Amino acid sequence: MELNTKQVAHQTEPMATHQTEPMEGKMGLLMKTQQEKRKSAFFATLSDDPLAHAFEKKTVIHAGLGGTPVPRQEIASVWKNLANTPRSGETAAYIHIPFCKTHCLYCGFYSNAATGDFSQPYTDALIRELRQDNNLAVCQNQPVHAVYLGGGTPTDLEADDLERLLRAIKECLPLANDCEITVEGRILEFGQEKIDACIRGGANRFSLGVQTFNTEMRQALGRISSRETIIDTLSYLKQTGHAAVIIDLIFGLPGQDAALWQRDIDTFLELELDGVDLYQLILYKGGTLEKQIQKGALPPAADTPEKSRLFALGVQLMKNARYRRLSISHWGRTTRERNRYNLFMKQKAHCLAYGSGAGGNLHGHAFFLDNKLESYMNRNLSGEKPLAMMLSPSPNEPLIKIISGELELGRMNLKKAGKQLNMDLEKRFAPLLTQWQEAGLVRLENGWMDLTLAGEFWQTNLAQGLIDYFQTVPGA
Fold it and tell me: Which residues is 209 bridged to in the sheet?
């Protein structure tokens, strides 16, 4: 699993005849965190350095997660209604491959070891699920604009399985002519055979979790491939000419200073790839990386002020190189990179979902599939959609969608959003926005709220702050 939160919206009460344990893994971790009592610290700290000190700590989970759990006995009937209701608007599909060759120290989402004969039977199950859902109204009535194979590590599937899975996706889903089809993976064991199989299957975008080019730092974190191997693989991918090549880089790693962070970005720029995500390290409480740091096996990870400085450095380097900013963390070199899937998820678009531990969103309802592999496989074989959890939307879902999607782009048109929702958002948020402007986080002008550099760093805090303020402050 590559460290980022971009697949968060896609990751499990089973049907009434099934009993499963509470969901674990990616969405389990996020939902547990979401359910913790949130401090109502809407207002920022006034300081000379808002980039580093605007809030006590940084929110690291996507804004707006939540909803009301659908009772176990009602999930099957709610799913039937959702599945038989045609959709409209932008739509994505997420296919989850919950297997990894290794468990990286920083990753809180590890599910299943990629050992033994897992590739063929799991691919069979995914194709079976795609075909079982093929004739549902929600699947067929409008185009699908982005497909994402995420994990886990999709590139741990065998080459033949990657190709036939991609072909089945094209067969079963009504893909738009310009559909973005992404295969996420890692450099380890992603050689020419698998790359070529993905391209034959129709993949037009690769998103690879490099995290850092520094060999020593990578190996300390459980990554195996060397800097040289990474560069060779990325160069081969680029020269095929068939797909956009995107990588993830992480700032705030143990022992990583500004010089090492700049070298990672400089290496990316020298390769002239199509895009990059610049993510901050998420240090999961009780996770393997935290334990290694606590016992002195690794140096401390960066604290929030240091992360803020590394964030600012990354922004400046990308601007200097004239890369196009597609979201708070994502940059593209040319128009070939669109970052559509990730933006759809922040905008809470429709998302079809397939695979153990996958999750999606239909008509405002979040749903999650069984993340217990054996249970998923058995239910899949029986012809059942292996649902494990469902959340009905908040009454404020239209506003939450706008806030989450707009702030991911670094701004929000308050006047336009207010007209859409028939409310005066400028007035309702005025006390909060005025204070944020004083704190150096936003600029307010002609109905727009634009994030400053400090606001961009604290973007998830601001998005969640707006949502919480609206929902909890009387008269807001």
Answer: 248
